[in-house]
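FW: tagging you since you asked about this chain on Friday. Here's the raw sequence from the shared folder, copied in full. Didn't touch anything.
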Amino acid sequence: MSTKILTEASGSLTSAYLIEAIKKAGFFSVASDIDPECVGRYLAHDFIEMPFKDDKNLWEKTLDKLISHKIDIVIPSLDETLLGWAQKKEEFLQHGVHTIISNPQTVKIFQDKWLTFQFFRQAGIPTPLTSLEQKYPLIKPRNGRGSKGVKITSKPVHMDGMVSQELLEGEEYTVDVFCDKQSEPVYIVPRKRLGVKDGKSTGGIVVNHPQIIKWVKRICKQIPFLGPINIQCFICKDGSVKFVEINPRIAGGMALGFAATENWINLIVDHFIFGKSINPKPIRSGMKMKRYYAEVFIP
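HL: got it, structure written out here
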């Protein structure tokens, strides 16, 4: 039977590329979401309705569903449950389910913007000045995602659960990275975001940027990552680079990273499941991506 690969948040606007990548790689795609009528249900080979994240029996129910559907691999992408997947990774492996996620400590650091700032400073990685007090104009939730809750203001703000950050001027880059079992970055694909809506990339271009690549290699030597991760940084007006955050998971805009290299689903299966070595292909710098809405008709 073909390897069954489960993806999360299959109702999101960027979920389709991952479902299609699994199918193109020749594997069995299983979408999942809390919404039984999400669009991913009609794109994948199979669908699992997931329990709500605040369900007290969330992980017991999740494991039961993974076992009953004979899931081989999970590729987590939902920030709210990312740490849980990391914490349950070894337990689930005992039931034959491989979870492609970094260790819990890595996930915990990069889901918290204050801990992320502390990591960058201690590792000598350039990053914008950040404070738990309202010292800087950019205000963000410590544990937020996308642009939700982010504001630029000089007015007093209740800072419980928030950080303030130096406002950067320059060009924003996103870096798609694929790390092997030893946290070696097999692929580092910097891309300039040509369009963003609600924190999601709607367009981009792959850029060969040696300075970004150098720093990403250094980051990956300082803390272990596994599989696909997503790094955000700015090239400031003076030419310096500053790193803002790391998402230790697959990301919605990674469709461009896949297209500029190869199908990372094959890498996940061949390397993490079957232990094969990876021979990286040349990165196609200059490749652009544009996104558009598409329809799914259900008879």
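FW: The longest strand covers residues 185-197.
HL: agreed, and The first helix runs from residue 16 to 24.
FW: great, closing this out.
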